Amino acid sequence: MKKTFKAVVFALVAYLVADRAMLHAQGRDLAASSCAQSAAQIEFDALSKGFSHAAASSQRDAFRSQCLVSGRAESGTAVAMR
Question: pTM for the full model?
Answer without folding.
Answer: 0.58
